[in-house]
Structures are given as C-alpha cells and as structure tokens.
Amino acid sequence: MRLAKYLAHAGVASRRAAERLIAEGRVALDGEIVTDPARHVEQGAAVAVDGEPLTGPEPRVVFAVNKPVGVVSTARDTHGRPTVTELLDAGGLRLYPVGRLDADSAGLILLTNDGELANRLTHPRYEVPKTYRARVAGGPVGEPALAALRDGLELDDGPTAPAQVALLAPDELEITIHEGRNRQVRRMCEAVGHPVLALTRVGFGTLRLDDLAPGAHRRLGASEIAGLGGGL
Which of 62, 96, 125, 208 is the Cys-Cys partner for 220 at CB 3.0 to 4.6 Å? Predict the structure, then answer.
C-alpha cells in the first residue's frame, strides 16, 4: 500500500493532507523519514507521524452530524470555540470533518476517519451535490432572481455553475450546488439581492438531514457509505 493511502486508511488525514505531512518530513517508515508519498508500506512495517507510532488502519466509520450554529467544522480550534468533533464520543478514533460548514450555518456535516471517502466527497471532479435551505431578506424572491441562480451567475471568484433552486416560501429557498467555494450559497443569494438570514445544509450526496436533531449524530450503515461512493 502507498504511504499516503496508508495514512488515510489509518485515520490520520485525507489523502491530500497525508501527502503534505509526508512532504514536510513528519512521517517515518521503519525509523526512516520518508518524503515520497508513493513509498510502499509492507505489512507489519512501523509507521510514525510526528514521532507517534500508528497501529495500522482503523475500522472505517462515518457519522452524520447536525451541526448547530456557533460550532466550527474543524477538529481543533485555536480560539477555543466548540468544534464539531466534540459533539460525539469517537471512542479513540481520529475523526475529521468532510469539507466545511460555516460557523454561522447549521445542518448536515459528515465526520469520518476514511481519507479516501473524504477526498471523493470533496474533490470538485466528483461534483457531489450539497443542498441548503436559506431564509433570505430582501422581500419575496422573484422569478428574475430564481432564474439567475438557476442559470449561474458571476461572483468575485468567477462564474458559478447552474444551481437547482426551489422556492419553498416567499422568503425561503432550497438550493443544490455541486461546487464547494467559500460561503458560496450566501454570496449567490447576496448577488441576486436576497442576503441570507439563516442557512441550513439539508443534503450531502445521497444523504438527507431528515429529523436528526441539532447537535445529534448517527453512524452510517454500510449501504449508506456505499451510496456515498465508499465502495470505490
């Protein structure tokens, strides 16, 4: 197994983050610092990160979490804010969030120790859909604004891809995008004259938030993980 893949399967980080760790000289294989992410790891080899030995691949787990507003979607926070990983007892497993969800947004986020799956769900080429419900200001949302969101519009970092948009109420939208730009839904709504007042992610790939309570979590079953692409 390639070293970067080994680290991802061991729950250290995603494949790309593992490659960075290796390039920074933080990974040792059988006592030797290795900077090649493609180095083969033999069965029974000793692998350490920052001097801490790894015990081998962890059992793969994926949790769906309903992140409340005010919780940050990182494993650690230098400012002492509550993190999404603190919402559940991982039983010693090293979990990290799949992608990001702003602190001022709520809803569905995944936690896993499977770097391969995390990469598949966040890499732009896979175009994994993410669905949000947005309550907006600016009065009732009219057809011109809906058409602009559906056709794609120009933001300061370039044009967006067309979005799927449904009007749930005069001031509430359901928006599905396949991109993952920073605060994208908020910026899209702002661009059409309807700033977001509250934003909740209700769908991630094949998963839906459904009746999962704020702050609650549930472990995904094998069929759900396969539906997300975990069988690839």
Answer: 62
Q: What is the pTM of this model?
A: 0.78
Are the CB atoms for 98 and 64 separated by under 8 Å? no
Catalytic residue among 30, 77, 89, 102: 102
What average pLDDT score do residues 151-170 get?
96
Amino acid at 155: L
Judge whether 102 counts as a catalytic residue: yes
- CA-based radius of gyration for the chain: 20
Domain interval for residue 47 = 3-53
Cβ atoms 108, 201 nearer than 8 A: yes
Q: Which amino acid makes up residue 87?
A: L
Asked if pLDDT for residue 232 goes beyond 50, the answer is no
Q: Indicate the burial class of 128 (C-beta count within 10 angstroms; 0-12, 13-18, 19 or more).
A: buried
Question: Average pLDDT in the 7-23 region?
Answer: 85
Which pLDDT value is given to residue 28? 95
Q: Please give the full DSSP string across 119-178, using - where no structure is assigned.
A: HHHH-GGG---EEEEEEE-SSSPPHHHHHHHHH--EETTEEPPP-EEEEEETTEEEEEES
Question: How many folded domains does the chain comprise?
Answer: 3
Are 66 and 178 in a shared domain? Answer: no
> Is residue 224 located within the same domain as residue 181?
no
